[in-house]
Design brief:
Strand content of chain A: over 45%
Oligomer: homodimer
Largest interface: A-B, 32 and 31 residues
Number of strands of chain A: 8
Order of helices and strands of chain A: EHEEEEEEE
Shape of chain A: globular
Largest sheet of chain A: 7 strands, mixed
Helix content of chain A: under 10%
Radius of gyration of chain A: 13 Å
Chain lengths: ~120, ~120
C-alpha cells in the first residue's frame, strides 16, 4: 500500500553509507535513498538502465569519461544507459536514486561497497 | 544529452498552472514539474500507470475514494495504477511528477485543464 514518504525523515532512520534503501516503487522503478561519503564507487556502467541522481544534501560529483558534473542540493542528473561513470561526494551527501528495480548496484563491477540486493527502509 | 537540472530554477521559468513540463526522461518515464492552484483536477484514473507526486513547495491534498492524503514540501506519494484520484493544492503548490512517458494527463476524463501533450521545459 502506498504511504506518505517524508525524505528528511527517511534519512533520520539510517546512517550507513553506500547502502541504498528502497522507499518507493512505481512502474517497475525503485525510489531509493542513500548516504555517500568517500571515494568508494568504482567506475561502472548499466547496460540497459538509465539512473537518476537527485541530491537532497551535500554536493555530488558525477564523473563520466568525457565530462565531470557537479550536483548541489536540489539538483538532479540522469546518467544514460551504457555510459561509464562513478560518483564521488564532497564530504557527506544525501541522494535520492531513481532506477529500474532490476538494476545491479555497480553494474558488472564488484567492489567493496557492492550490494547484491536492496531492502525497503522501514517507515 | 543529459544536463544538470536545478528544480528551483525550473520553477522560475514558468508561472502557468496545471501544465506539466518535462525536465527529464529515464527508462521510459518522464520527470515533470508543475504548478497547481485551485480545485480543477477531475476525478480520474490511469489504468496502467503508477504516478508519483513529490511536493517541493506548498501543500497538496490527494483524494482517493477511500482516503485523503496530505503532502507537505519534501514528501511524496505514489498513486497506484487503477486507483481513482484527484489532487487539490492548498493555495499554490509546486510539484515534481514521475510517470510513464505515454500517460494521459487526466486519464480518460477530459476537463478544462486537460493537456493532450507535454513539452520539454527549456533549461
Amino acid at each position: 500500500m502506498s504511504k506518505v514518504v517524508n525524505i528528511e525523515r527517511c534519512f533520520e532512520k539510517f546512517n550507513d553509507t553506500f547502502s541504498p534503501k528502497i522507499v518507493g516503487e512505481l512502474n517497475g522503478q525503485y525510489v531509493k535513498v542513500v548516504r555517500l561519503e568517500g571515494d568508494k564507487v568504482p567506475w561502472h556502467l548499466h547496460e540497459n538502465e538509465d539512473e537518476m541522481f537527485f541530491v537532497v544534501g551535500g554536493i555530488l560529483d558525477i564523473l563520466e569519461k568525457d565530462k565531470n558534473i557537479t550536483l548541489n542540493a536540489g539538483e538532479f542528473y540522469i546518467v544514460q544507459k551504457g555510459v561509464e561513470h562513478k560518483v564521488v561526494p564532497r564530504g557527506h551527501a544525501k541522494i535520492i536514486l531513481f532506477e529500474p528495480a532490476g538494476i545491479e548496484h555497480t553494474g558488472k563491477v564488484k567492489a567493496e561497497i557492492t550490494k547484491e540486493s536492496f531492502d525497503w527502509l522501514e517507515l
